[in-house]
Amino acid sequence: MVSKLIILTFVLVGGSLGYNLFPELVSNWDVIPGWLVHPITGMVLGAGMFYMLSFQAIKPLEKGAARIEKAFGEVSIAYLMFGSIGAIIGLILAVLISIFLNALNMIFISDVIPLVLAVGFAYFGFQLGTSRREEIRRLFSPKTVKAENEDVLERREGESYRKYKVLDTSAIIDGRILDVVKTGFLEGVLVVSQYVLQELQHIADSSDSLKRVRGRRGLDILNALQKEEGILLQIDDSELPESDEVDMKLVYLAKKLDGMVVTNDFNLNKVAEFQNVPVLNINQLANAVKPVVIPGEDMRVMIVKNGTERAQGVAYLDDGTMVVVEEGKHHMNERVEVVVTSSLQTNAGRMIFAKLVNDQKAIDDRKDKKKYG
């Protein structure tokens, strides 16, 4: 439809130019047929010439129209409406001032200054209308009816609310992003760059079987996110010439959208924070919601492997938290009762240190004997 409209516009413009200009151009020739000077002939020739030129201009104009449509689609109707009203008011003020300037009948002031005023007043009117639209709306709202939640502040989308969440490859492959979004703790629009899709496809086509499985898992997670009701997933196909690295392109995209980066990559997390781009790290979220244990608390765990120190055994909780048990080496593949002695929070997660309940009871008995003996 857009291509047909472009062709029709070119034909009309070419026919109009040929009708008005072609007879004057050829009238100065010495020997020329009379029918060629006719305006209808010029209209046909101009329309045909511009019809041929329209095929060269279709693709660039379609890309430009798509970008304009996308830009207008990302802003709200209220934003455009208040901005347009502000621009119209600015143009009216510029016309009123230009009437006074035209009365001076001075070359520069009467010809150039009105054009500058029209552009400047329209721009400032648009900016004023969009930035103060909440105040303008309140001016025209009825003050006799008191709202039920009058004391509740309205959140201004586009000022402090970061609507867009840019997904990294690691967060998609990890898969937990789907469960987090389903719970409703992550709001807004999820954005997947075309470069992330290309990276996932490259991983899925890898000769390494492990990488191939990870890549296909990432593509399955994207399909599940796209089919899930209540989740807005957008594919960003814009060109991002910031860097050859995908991570830097995602940081640039988050800046462009005023959004946040969702990732599991520790290095991308640090780079984004250095460039003042907010980051949502799934690993940090998982560590934050892990159950808190305090020293003296009892638990039952299974020793699965040896620790790094002498006689240590290592167990894991259901959420993957590592539990280091003193003297646990002698109870390999056994489920034992332990008592927590301390815990340590690291970037990789939480580590819990514990002792066997029997060893702790023996220590307590010896302390009691010394105290009362």
Task: Name the features.
13 helices, alpha/beta, six-stranded mixed β-sheet, 373 residues, 4 domains, Rossmann fold, elongated, five-stranded parallel β-sheet, 56% helix
Question: Your description of this structure?
Answer:
It is a single chain. This protein is an alpha/beta fold and 373 residues long. The chain has 4 domains: 2-73, no CATH class; 77-137; 164-288, 3-Layer(aba) Sandwich (Rossmann fold); 298-372, OB fold (Dihydrolipoamide Acetyltransferase, E2P). Helix content is 56%, strand content 15%. The chain has a 6-stranded mixed sheet. Helix 3 runs antiparallel to helix 4 (107-131). The longest helix is centred in the N-terminal third of the chain and has 35 residues, at 39-73. The protein is elongated, with a radius of gyration of 35 Å. 20% of the residues are buried. The model is unreliable at 144-160 (pLDDT under 50).
